[in-house]
Amino acid sequence: MGQTKKPANHRLTEEEMSKSMFFAYHQLRTPLISMKWMAEMLLKGEAGKLNPAQEDLIRDLYTSVNHANELVGHLLSAARIESEELLIRLEPVDLEKICNEAVKDLQPLANKKSQTLSFKKIVNLPIINTDPKYLREVLDNLLSNAAKYTPNKGAVELSVSLYKGEILFAVKDSGIGIPKAQQSRVFGKFFRGDNAVKMSNDGTGLGLYIVKNLVELLGGKIWFESEEERGTTFYFTLPVR
To answer: What is the pTM assigned to this prediction?
Structure first.
C-alpha cells in the first residue's frame, strides 16, 4: 500500500516542524565542513604560497565559517531538544579527566586574550554514570561563554565539589556580567544580554538554552549569580547515580 497523502491544508505539528528544521540544519553542516577544510588547506600552503593579502582574506573566511558552523551546531542541538530525540547513554565518567580536557581545549582562546584559566577540584571526584557527550557540551558552552565575555587579562575558573550528595560544578568568570533587569531571560531561546551584543556580535543566543535543557536531561539543576561589570558564576549539579 502507498503512503496516505496529507490533505493540502495540513498544518505541520510542532514535532514535524522541529524534525524538518533538524534535517535542514544537518544539510547545512556538510558544505560548511568542506569550506573549513579547504580554508585550512589554503592556510597551510597546500595549494601554493599565499601572499599576505590573500592569507588575511582566507583567515577571515576561516573565522566566518567557524562562526557559521557554531551557529548550525547550536541550531541542531536546539532542534534535537525540541523534537525530544535526545537519548541519554549512561556510562562511567571520570569527572577529573573530562574537566581537564574541557579546560585544555579552551586554553588557546584564553592564551589569545591573556586570561588566567584554571580547574579546581575541591575533593577527590568519584566516577559517576552520566552521558559524557552531553556533559562535555555543557562544560564547553559554559567555559567558552565565560572566556568570550571576559575581557583580556581576566580570569575563568572551573571548580567541582560535592554539594548535598550531588556533584556541583561552578564556572566563574571576571567578565561583563548579566544586566539585572535581563537575568530572568538568561536561559531563554535566542536571548543575548545588551552588553553581550555590544561586546560581540557573533553569538547565537542558544548556548545557555541548550545547556539548561541538557543539565535537566541529565537529572541536574542549573542557576547562576551575576553582577554587571563584576562577573558571573554558573552552577549546575549532577546526581551521583
So the answer is: 0.77
